[in-house]
Design brief:
The chain is an alpha/beta fold and 335 residues long. The chain has helices at 16-19, 22-31, 49-53, 69-73, 94-98, 107-126, 129-139, 165-174, 190-196, 203-209, 229-234, 252-260, 302-317, 328-331, and strands at 7-10, 39-40, 57-60, 80-83, 102-105, 157-161, 180-184, 212-215, 240-243, 265-268, 288-290. It is elongated and about 70 Å long.
């Protein structure tokens, strides 16, 4: 049996038992040599000098310190980073790639709960659940048997902005439902959109023709305030904006002004800034439904991220290619 590579956790220590519960930790230890009680939260910690010097694989997650030149100098044997979370932008540096270190991410696993949350919000918004709940809370009764006009999910038009992992997973989840989905993404061509099974539109056309618009683009300099006053004005009266991507994709001043008119509604799991100031009007506007960044992996879902890393560790120790290796060339335009 080949010798297991030396590994080290690098993340917020409190997260380790959640991401790697006992069964997963045992499986991880079949593939790598790792001390579950040793977690790097600061690469300059003197206690980590010797463990870092022999580390071949970093098992990273939320709270991982930045992998700059000094940190990498302290880990001369490092050859792989297996990230038990989504984006690696927050802690990797160009030096990681220059040294030929392979990086894997569990972003695909994290995409599922975000897509599930988004699907749930689309279906609830289509039934006008948020406003109807508030009406019932106020009136404490309702005209039983009367039809509520203008609501329902039969043929409702859903516009997806961004064919990211989440966007693509959402397209899959929408298929069993009687909804009409369309896509806007400058990096997708007609042939790719056809393979995904959705029509490809410009952003403006998608905004004009969708009753629910859901954002799944990455945060880059080009996508900052992708949806501002001009774009919001294109959305039909009564339509809903859903954002589970990054808060900075939306100009919140413009959104607040539009919501105050009552013309649109919004479901926001991410905001800019995050969290919102305590006096933000978005907390009180009846047509704004704000949740505390819940869409991504939470609770028992984070073990799915750990499972992805365990499987990648198995491939690594077997000498196979990693299934979820990060492509540096695509990193600038992905999350």
């Amino acid at each position: 049996m080949p010798e297991r590579p030396q590994a080290l956790f690098a993340m917020a220590a409190r997260n380790v038992p959640h991401v790697f519960p006992p069964e997963l930790l045992a499986r991880l230890c079949e593939h790598v040599e790792i001390d579950p009680g040793l977690v790097a939260q600061d690469f300059t910690d003197p206690r980590l000098r010797e463990p870092l010097a022999r580390t071949e694989v970093l098992i990273t997650g939320w709270g991982c310190p930045r992998l700059d030149a000094a940190a990498l100098d302290a880990a001369p044997e490092l050859r792989a980073v297996l990230h038990a979370a989504g984006s690696v932008k927050g802690f990797t540096t160009p030096e990681v790639w220059r040294r030929g270190i392979v990086v894997s991410s569990a972003a695909a696993a994290n995409a599922l709960p975000v897509a599930e949350y988004t699907l749930a919000m689309i279906l609830l918004a289509g039934k006008d659940v948020f406003a109807q709940r508030d009406l019932l809370r106020t009136r404490r009764t309702f005209p039983y048997g009367d039809l509520v006009p203008g609501i329902g999910n039969h043929g409702r038009r859903v516009g997806i902005v961004g064919a990211s992992r989440v966007g693509r997973r959402l397209i899959e989840l929408l298929r069993p439902h009687d909804l009409r989905a369309s896509l806007a993404d400058p990096y997708v061509d007609e042939a790719e959109a056809a393979r995904l099974g959705v029509p490809l539109l410009s952003l403006d056309d998608l905004l004009r023709t969708s009753e629910i618009v859901t954002l799944h683009a990455p945060q880059t300099p080009e996508t900052r305030h992708l949806v501002g006053a001009r774009e919001l004005a294109l959305m039909p009266t009564g339509s809903v904006l859903v954002n589970t991507a990054r808060g900075a994709l939306v100009d919140h001043d413009a959104l607040t002004a539009e919501l105050r008119t009552g013309r649109l509604s919004a479901v926001l799991d991410v905001t800019d800034p995050e969290p919102l100031p305590a006096d933000s009007p978005l907390f009180d506007l009846p047509n704004a439904f704000v949740t505390p960044h819940l869409a991504g992996s939470q609770g028992n879902e984070v073990a799915r991220l750990g499972r992805t890393v365990v499987e990648e560790a198995g491939r690594l120790s077997a000498g196979d290619g990693l299934l979820y290796a990060v492509d540096r060339a695509e990193l600038e335009r992905t999350a």
